[in-house]
Amino acid sequence: MGKNLIQQARGKGGPRYRAPSFKYKGKIGYISPLDKNINGKVIDLIHCRGHSSPLAHIKYEDEKENIIPAPEGIKVGDNIENGNNVEIKIGNTLPLKNIPEGTLIYNIEGNPGDGGKFVRAGGVFARVITKIEDGVTILLPSKKEKKFRPDCRATIGTIAGSGRTEKPFLKAGTMYYAMKARNRLWPKTSGTSMNAVDHPFGGSSSTHKGRPTQAPRNAPPGRKVGKIAPTRTGRKKR
Q1: CATH topology for the 21-164 domain
Q2: pLDDT band for position 192 (50/70/90)?
């Protein structure tokens, strides 16, 4: 009898693949949209197992508190601002329409008020490319350009934690505990290395699958593996 594929088991939502979010320090994001500028102070820098960068705990003058990814160069006791017309300074948050072209930013909102969805990993940044009346074009870390609404907010600077990729893991045990901290699936086994009962690509002739890796668009669950209706295949030539 066949077994569920790993992606099917993950979709079930069982504890084996569920992230231990109850151990995270908190949800990062911005305070509710403001019509006026408000000052805040960094009261703590936090290490969280669920994030690849340190987090900055901010307390504002109206006693509201929130957590944002810490930018490079910030320290406990620094003052930051959140509003529509604040200084272009590391750690300050303001709408994209008020950020000059060429500025480095991170934690960009996909829709105004969602708290930030883009550019949140440690050591990354995006750059404001062009601004027009109905949108702001941003160069993402992937080198792709994306257009955002002018009222979406972002934070000035580069996320801290850029050196995390410079230290090698050296051995599998270190990688195991790093992945276990967020309940990531590791190690990753290719479908061709599995048995035929475990994956459509598996079997004794695993080196020569005998079937295309591009799944049909109308394939049923369990067969829809590999390249799922890709727009293009093969290496991208630059």
Answers
A1: SH3 type barrels. (2.30.30)
A2: confident
